[in-house]
Amino acid sequence: MQRTKEQPGEATADPRVHAQRIREMLRDTMVHARQDEARVTDPKALALFETTAEVLQGLITAYEHFEQKSEPVWR
Predict the structure, then answer these.
(1) Measured between alpha carbons, how far is 17 from 8 in angstroms, rounded to an integer?
(2) Domain boundaries, given as residue ranges, for the chain
């Protein structure tokens, strides 16, 4: 796996910094999948992109809960 340029804060051991970066990447990918939904006509591809966006939204929510410590498991 090729590494990209290191982002600010990547050297830290604080998991919240890493969680925030991953959440941002997930959100970017979710937005891209939603945009592609409008570009395709193949029903199977459309279903795939919709499912991708929905799953990513669930992961984004989990990361937000981790960052906010809003669930008992993250406290």
Answers:
(1) 9
(2) 15-74
